[in-house]
Amino acid sequence: MALAAIPSVTAFGPVGSQAVALVAQNFMTAKTIKAVNKMLGGDASVALVNAATYGNRYSATPEGAWSTAGFSMFPKDAPAAICNLSVLQDCSTAGCAMTAFGNFTNILTDYPTPSTAAQKSQALRLLISLFPSMHTPLSNTAATGTNINIKYNGAAETLSTFWSTTVPNALSNTNATTLASSILSTFKPNSTLLANLSTCWPTTTMGQYVGESNTLACTAVYAGNGYSPADIAGKELKGNYYKNVATPVVKERIASAGYRMAAYLNLIFGGEPGLVVPGVAIVPMCNTTALTHAGTAFKTT
Q: Residue 213: exposed, middle, or buried by beta-carbon count in 10 A (0-12, 13-18, 19+)?
């Protein structure tokens, strides 16, 4: 079974992506941890953190060059005036992040045919690295910010770099463990963060997550502090924009990505429809104990 590719631009940088994995590992069931250990080798906590940045590392290698070709999202939007994203309209003919998400799920659940151990190992790494990407606002809009220069603390950088790397680094002194600890103390698992979907059809799940990020391009990235796409260029963003616009969004997106990663892996490997939280029992991600795709149940392993 062929692997679909993943988006590699404008996703959270190493600190943000690793923080997502560190949040997730706190809520993985014993069965999930055992499966991740087996597929990735070694300690699941270490393997999960490494896998969170695997997609970008892999796409930079000759053998992974295929993974950068046309497998992002292609929304026909124009922030801050129009933000919208459609599974049907915003995938290229070759595929996109949403179809990749479903493809990796198929491989991990041996659907429709059994996959090899090597295929599953790579699919799991790529699936894990998709979670930070689909929760980054500028990964899921046509206005990626890669061509908009701003300033942070007097230094020039792109708006994309600011959201994906500078903010997570500044929040944590460039330490993923510090960032994850701060997020875990602020954001408690709840059905809103998990999106509590009615079904766990992979493209529906993915569509919900990237749709939220796309909306944030309009409501936060290109509207916060009174800035529009036309006048944010060249602005110093360290003050109010960083504190009151970017910080709460970045922390919430990392929290959501981490909880959702744990819940999705728990569903794939253990049939648990969400997070197992002491004192709370199940915080549901969806109202089912089986993954479904176009009305057909994925078998859980």
A: buried
